[in-house]
Amino acid sequence: MRAAALLLSLLAFVVAGSALSTARASSRDIDSARNWSRYFGNDQAWSYSALDQVDRSTVSMLSPVWAFATGANGLSATPLVEDGVMYLIAPGNRLFALDAATGRQIWSYAYPIADAGSVSRPGAVNGVALGFGLVFMPTLDNHLVAVDARTGHEVWDVQVDDPLQCRCRPSFAPVLAGDKVVIGATGESGPSKFIAAFDAKTGRQAWRFFTIPAPGNEGHESWAGESWKNAGAPTWYVGSYDPELNLVFWGTGNPGPAFHGASREGANLYSSSLIAIDADSGKLRWHYQHVPHDIWELDSSGEPTLIDFKERGRRIRAVLQGNKGGYAHLLDRGTGKYISAFAYADTITWTSGLDAQGRPRTRLETNLDAKLICPSGLGARAANRASYSMRTRFWYVSSLETCAMTRAVPPPQPGAAGAGAAQIMQLASNSIPHIAAYDPLTGKRKWSFATRGLHSSGLLTTGGGLMFGGDIFGEFFALDDETGRKLWSFPTGSGIVGGAISYAVNGRQYIAVASGWGDNAVGSAPAQYNSQFYPAMKAATPPAKAATLFVFALPETSR
Amino acid sequence: MKRWALLLAILLPATPSPASERGEQLFEANCASAGCHGPKGIGGQGPTLQGRGLSASQITDVVTLGRPGTAMAPFKDVLGEENLKRVVAYVQALSEAPAPSSAKLTVEDATVANGRILFFDTRRLAWCSACHSAGGRGGPVGADLAGAVLPPGGLVAFNGSSRSEAFQGIAVTLTDGQEFTGLAREAGDGVLKLLDLSSVPPVTRTFESAQIARSEPLKRPAFDHRILPYTVSDLAAIAAFLRVSESGK
Q1: What does the pLDDT average to over A85-94?
Q2: Is the peptide bond between A542 and the residue preceding it cis, with omega within 30 degrees of 0?
């Protein structure tokens, strides 16, 4: 049996070797694409690696080469890799530096929490940023800490905000923008959330942009009465950066209370919007509000993906972003001007469509009687990142296809925190959860792949013609990026709610993914619905708890 | 499955009281702590749960699944099915109780409430809590101001009055030429922790002794409070808040 398997893999190697010898990247190409030093792989938030050693012909030989167990319960982090060293954040404010080729631990850092009362738990921060020889790590008690990437020693530590007062904490990775580290905040109620920038070398605050304008500022008139004071408008996910325009792009979440819009008449700027901030001054350059006066929890939290294309010989610098309402918008990223939009969710009922400026056609009014709304407040997608492939120029995104019977509930008193709604979740009746590939310029769907359960992991595309994803039952898989056909999979044993990355060390390509269902898992919320939606899957739900990073590569002999 | 949820919603309010006692313990351990929903669900970083009129199925949904994008995490795996039901029953009981009376809210009158907001207001160029604490919250750089009785217009006059050694500022020069005002925090193992006060919020910076060229005591206050961007009425509100605040340390 083993001899036969060996023979088969040898045969596969021979076939792969002959067919692809010309398509292989040279070792210099491998070297230039070796790092994954940003949360989304690059400043533009593509979640794409140009590495192509693992490709459609060789992927069948992809095998685990090392694994690292954090010892915690749940792992939804995206690791970073720079020059052969991997940086992985784990629940409980722990940070590991690992040899990216072997998994050997180089150092570990634990941030002590002096003030345990301020920490919301369970919870986790799902990524770090890298630059200037430092690892920038957000903590559960709302500090931002810089750690020496070589030694693991603390260099600076600043409190971003008091978690009890701001009703916020960081949940995802900061973004490096030039010489600054920029970080967002969770919390759809309480005082206005913000993105804050700190000098990367010293930790000194450079600026802080609030997502709800204070009295006297432009946009403040979009809030009735005192409603602006407790409406949150969080910045809980991760932004992107254009060094040429020197702009930081960040998506904002829904205003609070999420569903009871009558408590906050007006457009509610800058909630459910994409904002572009000058990286030096912290001033708003432009904004585009996808859902004015959002009453369906339709965060514009998705990563702003920066893509360039040519139109009649002219270079268009665009930004593509998927809103939780199921539409993806393409805007001019220098001006915020609307270019086009397309639906990436199959079932959308909250609006009858979009107008010529990409805004919802249906007037959004507080809805006190139960009504079926699709997508539900879970969104067509939320934290699980999409991917843009430079190879195919397609955009790969998942859609949960859920709906909810929703009824707005007035808050007990003005300013009280809470969603202001009752929701009963269900699957959309005429569509299924899936991953699909789109041409972002035309909105044309290239293929669709039905996911097992509600897909909760981030997506990765590579120069090898592959798209990687993982499901909540622990299957890590590779699809053909042009057809959506499944080419390879590996059972990791626990739910996958992080996102895969690819990197290279000494000319060898690696693929890494966090596997770890548990208390701290992002995306576990949608996934928890599986036992309700799919009785047949109940035996497998919930997936086993774990927290392991798996790393894969081709066998040494086959390269 | 929907029928099951409905059944649960009907059954839960009838849960016997021993379960709800256990529910209260579980609530205090998992939901009240960490500054989230507060003791008996009075609220904190998370929303108040008293008098909300929430149904068992609403509560079950949120406790089970969490609320994505907020600090509310799914508790299904944390609590397990039985304990989750107990917590839901307890929260529903809280939720049916009368809403916290507005009388309680007026204890913290409007001026005090405004003062609290101003004290913690990160929109300001420099906000008090970046350095000072009150009511057990805030920074460890300056004095704990809980219970401080200050003349309303007189906060600014306090500038430079801190002469205690704990707040003795130092002028630091690094070997790379950087200069800043700081406070020494702790030393040991060849490293020195300094609070860099040259911007707000202050930054705790760690240096190897070899990185520091020079440090000497400041002859002026470590922080010039005259730059504070507060009006006289702002300061009066902050003083009102401080007077009634308690030290939580």
Answers
A1: 93
A2: yes
Residue of B nearest to A538 (CA): B1
Name chain B contacts of A210, Cβ cutoff 8 Å.
Answer: 123
Q: Is the peptide bond before A491 cis (omega within 30 degrees of 0)?
A: no
Q: What is the DSSP string of A481-512?
A: TTT--EEEEEE-SS---SB-EEEEETTEEEEE
How would residue B10 be classed by pLDDT, with cut points 50, 70 and 90? very low
Exposed/middle/buried for A124, CB within 10 Å: 0-12, 13-18, 19+? buried
In sequence order, which residues have a C-beta less than 8 Å from that of residue A310 and are 6 or more positions away? Answer: A316
Element (H, E) at A189: none
Q: In Å, how far from its chain's centre is CA A526?
A: 15
State whether residue B216 sits within 8 Å of chain A by CB.
no
What's the pLDDT score for residue A530? 67
Is the CB of residue A261 less than 8 Å from the CB of residue A295? yes
CA distance B101 to chain A (A): 10
Mean pLDDT of B171-197: 89
Q: Does A201 touch chain B (CB under 8 A)?
A: no
Assign A190 to helix, strand or coil.
strand
> Which amino acid type is present at position B123?
R
The least confident of A256-265, A402-411, B227-236 is B227-236
pTM value?
Answer: 0.85
End-to-end CA distance of chain A: 24
> Mutating which of A73, A142, A156 best tests the B interface, going by the most B Cβ atoms within 10 A?
A156
Question: Which stretch of A169-178, A549-558, B9-18 has the lowest confidence by average pLDDT?
Answer: B9-18
Contacts of A254 in chain B (CB under 8 A): 69
Alpha carbons within 13 A on the beta-carbon side of B130: 26
Measured CA distances, B49 to A206, A389, A412, B113 (Å): 38, 46, 10, 21
**Biggest distance spanned by C-alpha atoms of chain B:** 74
**Cβ–Cβ of B68/A378 closer than 8 Å?**
yes
**Residue A224's pLDDT is what?**
96
The DSSP bridge partners found for residue A80 are A87
Q: What is the pLDDT of residues A249-262, one digit of tens each?
A: 999 999 999 899 99
Whether B105 shows a pLDDT value over 90: the answer reads no
Please report the ipTM that was assigned to this predicted complex.
Answer: 0.88
The residue among B103, B102, B90 whose CA lies nearest residue B39 is B90
Mean pLDDT confidence for A137-141: 92
Across the range A478-492, mean pLDDT stands at 98
pLDDT at res. B33 = 59
Per-residue pLDDT tens over the stretch A287-345: 999 999 999 999 998 999 999 999 899 999 999 999 999 999 999 999 999 999 999 99
**Angle of CA points A95, B35, A495, to nearest 5°:** 45
Of A163, A205, A532, the CB nearest to B201: A205
Mark which residues 55-114 of B lie under 8 Å from A by CB: 55, 57-58, 61, 64-71, 73-74, 76-78, 99, 102, 105
CA angle B54, B56, B62 (to 5 degrees): 80
Question: Inter-chain contact A188–B74, Cβ cutoff 8 Å?
Answer: no
Q: Compute the average pLDDT of residues B223-247.
A: 79
Residue B146 near residue B242 (C-beta atoms within 8 A): yes
Report the residue from B77, B196, B199 with minimal CB separation from A545.
Answer: B77
CB contact under 8 A, A202 and B123: no
d(CA A272, CA A193): 13
Which of B33, B59, B70 should we substitute to test contact with A (largest number of A Cβ atoms within 10 Å)? B70
Task: Answer yes or no: do B34 and A413 touch at CB < 8 A.
Answer: no
Q: For residue B162, is pLDDT > 80? A: no
Judge whether residue A15 has pLDDT over 60. Answer: no
Of the candidates B1, B48, B205, the beta carbon closest to that of A532 is on: B1
